[in-house]
Write a structure and sequence with these properties.
Low-confidence stretches: none
Radius of gyration: 23 Å
Order of helices and strands: EEHHHHHHHH
Number of domains: 1
Number of strands: 2
Shape: globular
Mean pLDDT: 88
Strand content: under 5%
């Protein structure tokens, strides 16, 4: 890649890869006027792909000897179902919560798995397409890992929060839930109502923020490490040092990619488990 007629420095290369295809640069930490099109597009496509894979497994299900794909999906579903039973004790709620948890796991796993693609593959394809229009290729930004975008992970966690609030109202009734907001955790006394309500709000905010930030932090760090490893390959020259850096690039990239398979799976599992835990807490009364 190049910018303004010269090769990118290491810092420019990383900044370029960490810049979104968006409506503009955010003004501050939170700017709702900025839309990251790449995150939305990849999230939507992978969501559709995840739904298609699950639908395909269900449509091809057989009572006989299952194929490998069906067996893998059945094992995954049984794992999610057993976790849901242990956390959400309301059988009626599990009819929705278990499939929701399954969808969350598969979707986030696919979003995370985009980190395993070569870091320059899709950005170079986009640069080529962008350049066909005669525009400056140095402005062809594209990030392919949606979960390395804080707006996506926080959007997912807010979705979980809304689900929890809905179950709070459904299980306890609107009046019962409002009473709980003021009566727990310190006790049902008018003098404690302000402190109870403040603690409840802090709990909701803390759970939501930590839920989204945990996934974002891990995936952002993983993406950054892949970029640093890619720089080793970019330093290749016809010299002993150049060959050593190229070899290190291959070895480090392979090792980190193999290890990253565990990370992307674990992060999807943790997000799913916390979703079940938070929904399960919405069923509890104080």
């Amino acid at each position: 890649m190049s910018a303004e007629g010269h090769a990118l420095t290491a810092g420019e290369y990383i900044v370029h890869h960490l810049t979104h295809l968006s409506t503009g640069k955010p003004k501050g930490l939170v700017d709702f006027s900025v839309i990251n099109f790449d995150s939305i597009i990849f999230s939507t496509l992978l969501g559709v792909l995840g739904c298609f894979l699950l639908w395909k497994a269900a449509s091809k299900a057989t009572s006989g000897v299952p194929g490998r794909f069906q067996a893998a999906v059945e094992i995954l579903f049984e794992m999610v179902e057993s976790q849901a039973k242990g956390i959400v004790h309301n059988a009626n709620s599990r009819k929705l919560v278990a499939p929701l948890a399954m969808t969350v796991f598969v979707w986030i796993f696919l979003l995370n798995a985009m980190d395993l693609l070569p870091v320059d593959l899709l950005p170079l394809v986009w640069e080529f397409i962008y350049g066909l229009s005669g525009r400056d290729e140095s402005h062809a930004f594209l990030r392919v890992v949606p979960t390395a975008d804080l707006s996506i992970t926080m959007g997912l966690s807010v979705g979980v929060l809304i689900t929890c609030l809905a179950y709070n109202v459904k299980i306890k009734g609107l009046g019962g839930w409002i009473h709980e907001l003021f009566a727990a955790p310190f006790g049902d006394h008018w003098a404690l109502y302000p402190f109870n309500f403040a603690m409840q709000m802090v709990e909701f905010v803390a759970k939501t923020v930590s839920h989204g930030m945990r996934l974002f932090g891990n995936m952002y760090a993983g993406e950054l490490i892949f970029l640093l490893i890619a720089l080793l390959g970019g330093a290749f020259t016809l010299s002993l040092t150049g060959f050593a850096l190229a070899a290190l690039h291959i070895v480090a990239g392979t090792v980190w990619a193999i290890f990253h398979i565990l990370i992307i799976t674990l992060q999807a599992f943790v997000f799913m488990m916390l979703t079940l835990v938070y929904v399960g807490q919405a069923h509890e009364t104080h």
